[in-house]
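User: structure tokens for this one?
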Amino acid sequence: MADVNAASTFRPADFTAHLFDLDGVITPTAEVHMRAWAEMFSQFLTSRDITEPYTDADYFAHVDGRPRYDGVRAFLASRGITLAEGEDSDPGQQPPGAETVRGLGNRKNDLVLSLLRSEGVAPYPGTVAYLDALPPGARLAIVSSSRNAEEVLRGAGLFERFEHIVDGNVAAREGLPGKPAPDTYLHGARLLGVDPARTVVYEDAVSGVRSGAAGSFGAVIGVDRGAGAAELAAAGATHVVADLEEIS
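Assistant:
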């Protein structure tokens, strides 16, 4: 079981590099993603006359932290639904008979972008305070499944804080499997030139924590924004906090 009081046992100064997930760790955009997934999947199920609703439990079990298309596949598989894979260019709005895995994922992304542009995004104050308190010379990077990471970071005013962004676009270009595989986090450590043992991973999703644990990083901090402290600990978090401001 992870130590839920990370402030007493974890010292950021003991590590050289810090790899942060974006949605749910840096910004509350995980809430935006949850809303977009719920709207997209609810519309999809209704179009097929499926009465069992999409729920938050589906989000945490099948979607949270995964690359977009992986999340679509995982949820559809949980309901015994098979769709053609499609192409990255498939439009989000397709007639039901022409729906594809990638078309559904693109529909969800369109909803996310619409919500971000209409409502804006602000970073978690506790996370900003934590970034401000990190030792001088700390090496920082973002490792996110999102393909909109740069846009979100710029909107939050934090883009310049990070040396590298390993997002869904980088993963696709480099052929890196997404979370819960460790490859994107390991790629972030390589870009910084820091050994994983000297690196901390910060994650709010069970799949992301599994990614950090599988990469043998020096510490994996689970940030509980709803996934559950016990679930994050069981996935491999070395410490669990409700907000990064708890770490001094």
